[in-house]
Amino acid sequence: MLVSYKWLKKLVAIDVPSSELSEKMSTTGIEVEGVSQLNEGLSKLIVGQIVEKEKIPDTHLTVCQVDIGEEEPIQVVCGGKVVDLAMKTIVAIPGARIVGNRKIKKGKIRGVSSFGMLCSLSEIGVPDSVIPKDYQDNIYRLPDDALVGDSIFKYLDLDDEIIELAITPNRADALSMRGVAHEVAAIYDKPVYFEKKSLVETAKNVSDVLSVEVAAKEIPFYAARVVENVVIKPSPQWLQNVLMNQGIRPINNVVDITNYVLLYFGQPMHAFDYDKFEEKTIVARLAKEKEMITTLDGEERSLTAEDMVITVADKPVALAGVMGGQSTEIDDNTQTVVLEAAVFDGQLVRKTSSRLNLRSESSSRFEKGINHATVIEALDYAAAMLTELAEGSVLSGMASVGQLQLADKVVSTNLDYVNTRLGTELVYTDIEKIMAQLGFGVSGDASGFSVSVPPRRWDIAIEADLVEEIARIYGYDKLPTTLPSTGGTIGELTRTQKLRRKIRSIIEAQGLSEVISYALTTPEKAIAFNQEPQELTELMWPMTSDRSVLRQNILSGMLDIIAYNTARNLKNIAIYEIGKIFKPATDETAPLPNEVGKLAFAITGLVADKDFQTKATPVDFFYAKGVLETLFRQLNISVDYQATKMENMHPGRTALILKDEEVLGFVGQIHPQVAKDYDLSETYVAEIDLQKVEELWQTQIIFKDVIKYPAVSRDLALLVDVNVTHDDIISVIEKAKVKNLKDIKLFDVYSGSTIETGKKSMAYSLTFQKETDSLTDEEVTNYIEKIITALAIDLNAEIR
């Protein structure tokens, strides 16, 4: 935000150096990035009037006799395109300094003596982007009332200082001269002086020529006034100076008035040529998909259903809050003007301007918010200026629809709350004084008071906001400096921290390396590997489409990391990550997403490289499962595995990790198509819920006496159908509830020519042990027979 210091001093009665004001503002919450003196480095630039001119043959040059207020005119050779007799312009006399510290000297051009220079605006430091188009690369015409021989600075307001403010999104109220004036008035405890304009209306009513409608909830308020009999012409010099000095190019009196009101009130406005309307009704609505509009910059743009448009005869004539349309542009033939003032949804304005790469002064203000209390005042002010500067006649009344939020916001707190947070000893009279400086109403006493916050400060909503306002006006430098008080507490890790450290130790001991992947990803990757995909949490203003939603799994990001590394010829990769995923909020009072801690790993390539003694060993399902078994064993958690089918996972090599029928996570191979999409070889992954693991984790190990009596092992080879799984057999054995059975281990699986078709052999080692005395052969034989009987009944198993 660029602020004219001359203009600011008209709004607030201050007379301090700009350096002091900058320091004050920076220490009270609005940072000043810099102050520039517009005439810095310029000297001996005066008003001159051309009294004679003569073209130099075969050149573009003109020899001018210029009156600079001395006895005799001086001769100047000029290369400007437009050089008129009696024209008053900028003259740099010998010894003058112009932009770039260039010194003007007497000299000869094409053999003709020149005793100075006629200047364009760019030659005295005005940026090309704000110079009126008629004076691009041409000498500048000064006002007719400029006195010959005077310094040009006062006529172009180059004796002004421009203060550049870094406005944060929460202080969008300072994106206007009135907002900055309120801020400066609060700092110096001064009143503000805002000019009032009386609006004279004709007998003709606006309803006779125009009506407005709103067909979208994203446009809470829309209003328009009609001004007839306007005369399009250049703006007066003072208005052009204000706009150029604050970074806006003057166009004509109508457009310049809307830009002036934007700077003054912070209220974006637009002016339409009413005679170009095909109907008398303006409709503000959301755009249709693929609807087209040609904006003022001459670009034809395709719209989406998230864009807001202003339409006439169901045709877009403006991109709401961003830029007007070319079809209703103000031009030299305009006679009737429709002035628009509205409130648009900031999020949609942001999306539109970002998608179309179309940033404007209007869009930047709508994105951050505008003052509802001055919307109508700004509209009336602009209409009054049209009567003054464009000779217009304002029709009676305005066409409007919708509601404005005009009520003061009431925020309550107490003195103890304020002093506790600031470390101060303020009394209630101090609070009253500070609120008076801010222009806020206050009622109550030290035990509890309420502050009425006007609509111009929509950033204030809670107690903490009030404390911040009190602190910055009271003075951050006055707040006491104290060291934090801490008790003699012993620092220790939380249970969650202890678990994560232990997991890192166990996982890294198995050769995996820790990585950190992005929490933001694409909508498709966010729900990959989810058994039950949930509603996504999207960013309103993502930097890129690749980072637009919060992830609901960690594996997609890890696969990106593996793909990046394998593309650079790193084939054997074993990585893990401890991070969070984000699920939709379930509590309406707490709309933030739920964060769930997860452990995930991914392994691809070879477990062991080939050498002269051993074969290359590729990673497989059992290697990945072994990593988990080691982890759970060292955490003293017993888990089961159950084959399953999941989206994006191999249908025959994926298992759920269970604890008493509760799912802790899954392990398996990614689907071959997913591997192909990422350009990967066989890759095995796992993801487990750390919150559930933490609930099961027993930090204290309960010691059991070592059994003194010997264990007895028996081998059992079974002939079963090929579709019978290891889990089926274990389930039947456990269901038989055989006493003193301590361990079951599968040590051989065989199928071949010696086994009948449709059968396979599975050999188990069963271990029995009694805690009170030694087992007898008869007891062990009974146990084995009970197991064999159960297997024969449930699985039709035969003993080989």
From TrEMBL:
Checking InterPro entries in the record gives: aa-tRNA-synth_II/BPL/LPL, B3/B4_tRNA-bd, DNA-bd_dom_put_sf, Fdx_antiC-bd, Fdx_antiC-bd_sf, NA-bd_OB-fold, Phe-tRNA-ligase_IIc_bsu, Phe-tRNA-ligase_IIc_bsu_bact
| PANTHER family associated with the record | PHENYLALANINE--TRNA LIGASE BETA SUBUNIT (PTHR10947:SF0), PHENYLALANYL-TRNA SYNTHETASE BETA CHAIN AND LEUCINE-RICH REPEAT-CONTAINING PROTEIN 47 (PTHR10947)
Q: Which Pfam families match?
A: B3_4, B5, FDX-ACB, tRNA_bind, tRNA_synthFbeta
Q: Which reaction does it catalyse?
A: tRNA(Phe) + L-phenylalanine + ATP = L-phenylalanyl-tRNA(Phe) + AMP + diphosphate + H(+)
SMART domains per record: B3_4, B5, FDX-ACB
Q: State what protein this is by name.
A: Phenylalanine--tRNA ligase beta subunit
Q: Name one GO molecular function term.
A: phenylalanine-tRNA ligase activity
Signal peptide residues are: none
Lineage, top-rank taxon, reads: Bacteria
Taxonomic placement: Bacteria, Bacillati, Bacillota, Bacilli, Lactobacillales
According to its UniProt record, which protein family does this protein belong to?
Belongs to the phenylalanyl-tRNA synthetase beta subunit family. Type 1 subfamily.
Q: How does it assemble?
A: Tetramer of two alpha and two beta subunits.
Tell whether Transcription is among the UniProt keywords.
no
Classify the main location: cytoplasm
